[in-house]
Amino acid sequence: MKQTETDTAVLDQRLAAWDRKELLNGCQAVAQGVRLADVDVISAYPIRPYTEVMDALSKLIADGKLDAEYIIADSEHSQFEIVKHASSVGARAFAGSSGTGWMYGFEALVVTATDRLPPLFLVGNRALDDPGAFGVEHNDAMALRDMGWLLCWATTAQEALEHVLIGYRVAEDSRVRMPMALAMDGAFLTHSQHMVQVPTEEAVARFLPRYDLGPRRLHPDNPISIAPQVNEDWVMELRRQNWEAARRAKGVIVQAYQEFNEIFGERYATPFFSEFMTDDAETVLIGVGAVAMPARTAVRRLREQGRKVGYIGLRWFRPFPTEELRECLSRFRAVGVLDRNFAHGSPDCGGIVLHDVRSCLYPLASRPAVVNFIGGLGGRDISIADCTRMLEITGKAAERAGDEETVTWIGLRE
Amino acid sequence: MIKRVEVNYRGIFQKSLGKYLGSDIVMIASRMGKVAFSNGRYSDSPERNGIPCKYFAFVAEDLSEEELEAECGAKLDIDEADVSVVVDDTMVKGVEPWGWHGVRPINEKVHEKGCLLVITRHQPEDLLKFIAKKPYPYRLATLEGDASLAGMWVFKDDLTRERVLGAIAAVDPGIISIEAVEAYLLDKTKDARRAGAAREAYEATLRRVRLVKPGEGINWSHPVPVLPKWHEFEDTGIAVPAVPRGFKLGPRGQGRNDRFKRGTTKTHRPVIRFDLCIECTLCWLECPDGCFDPTEDGLYDVNYEVCVGCHKCAEVCPEPECIVMVDELRFENDRSPWEHWVRDPQGYIRWAEEKKGKERVHFPVVTGTGREVREGTYVPPKLSGAETPA
Ligand code: SF4
Ligand code: SF4
Q1: DSSP E strands: which ranges in A190-348?
Q2: Are A68 and A41 spatial neighbours (Cβ–Cβ below 8 Å)?
């Protein structure tokens, strides 16, 4: 098909949306996203791996590249309270943490959601102590799953930068107003240096409108009091509003990706999860985070041997893409769910993602077989060979011989 | 094909150097049209002073970035290295990043066609006195220079970075070429001196590559710990047995953790002239790692197995020339110096002075400004009659 002049204009515009390539690790990519989002207030308290984000931001401020209040808190709890309050006066606010630090600030995280404020938080996933471990495990971010938050994982440093912008856009939308947690695998993503494309400020301004709280903005010109004591008289109705917002968020997310693609080029085929070689697949693995890299490579190699396998990278965990994932997974004979987290004592003692995936499949008359893998805890690596093995176990489950284990541990010394 | 470079560096003091080398390799390889990325062995951090750490760079010509990352990015360590760079030559004695890993040979990852590239002023033969044997031949290259140690988070800009890039181009041009190194440094810094330093190191390294024959080196005596399976230890969590309480006078007399000695952390070790000691107790009190063992004659022996080389004892010792920090590579064992002294006081003093040599190395308090080398003064032995052997 011949390119029309309008097509060319659109392409030119998309090309102009990108400024330059820089060598950045995942944390520095997030800091670039925060700079481009022109964040007003940052609150910081160190914990590895998130620390590198606060370091990168303080450097951007020191270098005169970002104009923001940078407040060092005395703990994660204060840190999260600071951004909550900043957000309530109409400042675009950013904070982040990891592992047990994140858990320490949990009370403040919960009220940020019930106050319907939309700051963005980076969770550099880290194992929960004890004993001490720095490596990735998803339980820290997953703890938010029932709290009225938006929760999404980036797979690459590039995606991390872009999801700071997408995150603010969705969170601040007046139909949503929910806090946003952007999660990123500690080490494998936070601390790995890649060439990252950095968008221009102009293009970002076209995509991300100003943060406007409207009549809910706390300000001397608008004296209001928020979050009064309400007891049994209001809580049900407020929770219902949270519920509606979480449902509405899905439409807002879809729209945000559409506009992102329009401005920056076709970067995301689907908003909630990515599909890799799933077209005629019979067996798929679904996972969260940077494990996509070895998993997709395992899929590509098995495809070369003629095996019908695919990989699904679940990007958004809250709101959960119930209908979209149900429709997608209904096409396959077997689904292996990979959990880099634990939910001891839960149904089948499976992982957190397993439960949501199985539950979303339940209404289907004909459901794929579902098995679960627990792996990569505490930063243990998940190799290409591990992914191949998981795909093979999942493939066998499709035959429903009845002897398949629901949960298999991967990479365990056993 | 994937090329893997590991940079062995000392935690904190060389952190920026390690990271910059990783970034530079990625930038240079990218400019050459290759795919590359870089990361650090994450579990090494938070890096404690002197702890051996690693930074990696991965380069490929025929892979997508995703495949490269799948192969290399989701792993904590590498299986084999095309080039293992060592930016502090005392690490050739072995590296112990964590108590769970054991003391590992510096050339552990170097594969058959690979190269161990060491910044050193020692001869390759001297280095091989500490390096483990391998069943296959590999290359050992040396680049003349000192360990570039900076302070906390500080980078010491002494051209080590540029010189190592040049040396890597010399030992494996399949990773980065010297022309690309020079062009990158010129573009980035507009400073011909930096590109010149890389070129000079490149030329020098080409002349200093030695083939190490199979079996050349030493038998490695440190076992690699085997960690138990999940059902092989108590299911109530990890409990590490306590260091037995107790204390007796004499060498190794104090209770210490035998599981993680941390001796591979040091670039220098203290040499003590026991004859000059005024028994002030300061070394014993101030050593952050409790390395000094009081002896029955009122002196303080030092346990080199656990000394991390922090220089503190030498700083606090009030007597000139009594405690002096000396290049760790001048020592082949960790035996008690006090026992040597008691056995043969005069011989010990000769030994100590020979080890000390002329140069006294200090690291100024303002970190990142590098090291100061002064000339030492010779203090004649102060031996009482009792210490003079008959
Ligand atoms: S250098 Fe001295 S003070 Fe430091 S650890 Fe060694 S013996 Fe102790
Ligand atoms: S600090 Fe020096 S003089 Fe004092 S006890 Fe130690 S070695 Fe002797």
Answers
A1: 192-199, 273-276, 283-287, 309-314, 316-318, 334-339
A2: yes
pLDDT of residue B153: 66
Single out the residue in A264, A287, A322 at which a domain terminates: A264
- Angle (CA) A321-A322-A325 rounded to 5° is 75
B contacts of A381 (beta carbons < 8 Å): 74-76
Closest protein CA for atom 1 of ligand 2: B317
B310 to chain A, closest Cα gap in Å: 25
Same domain, A76 and A120: yes
Model confidence over A320-349: pLDDT tens digits? Answer: 999 999 999 999 999 999 999 999 999 999
Q: What gap in Å lies between CA B299 and CA B314, rounded to an integer?
A: 15
CA–CA distance, B128 with B140 (Å, rounded to integer): 9
Q: Which residue lies with its CA nearest to atom 4 of ligand 2?
A: B280
Q: Which domains does chain B have, with CATH numbers?
A: 2-212 (3.40.920.10), 263-387 (3.30.70.20)
pLDDT in tens, A14-69: 778 898 899 999 999 999 999 999 999 999 999 999 999 999 999 999 999 999 99
Same domain assignment for residues A102 and A179: yes
Provide the number of CB pairs (under 8 Å) joining chain A to chain B. Answer: 79
Answer for the pair A335, A300: CB distance below 8 angstroms, yes or no: no
- The yes-or-no verdict on residue B61 having pLDDT over 50 is yes
Q: For residue A87, what are the contacts with CB-CB under 8 A and spacing of at least 6?
A: A41, A93, A112, A117, A118, A119
Per-residue pLDDT tens over the stretch A123-153: 999 999 888 899 999 999 999 999 999 999 9
B19 membership: H or E segment, kind and range:
helix B15-31
Residues A171 and A279 in one domain: no
Q: How many CA atoms lie within 13 A of A123 on its CB side?
A: 32
Residue A231 within any structural domain of the chain: yes
pLDDT of residue A1: 43
- Same-domain pairing of A242 and A297: no
B43 → closest Cβ in A131, A135, A382: A135
* B10 CA from centroid of ligand 1 (Å): 17
Rg (CA), chain A: 21
Average pLDDT along chain B: 92
pLDDT score, position B245: 83
Rounded distance, CA B18 to CA B51, Å? 13
User: Which residue is listed with tokens 């220079």?
Assistant: B145
Q: Are B131 and B218 in contact (CB under 8 A)?
A: yes
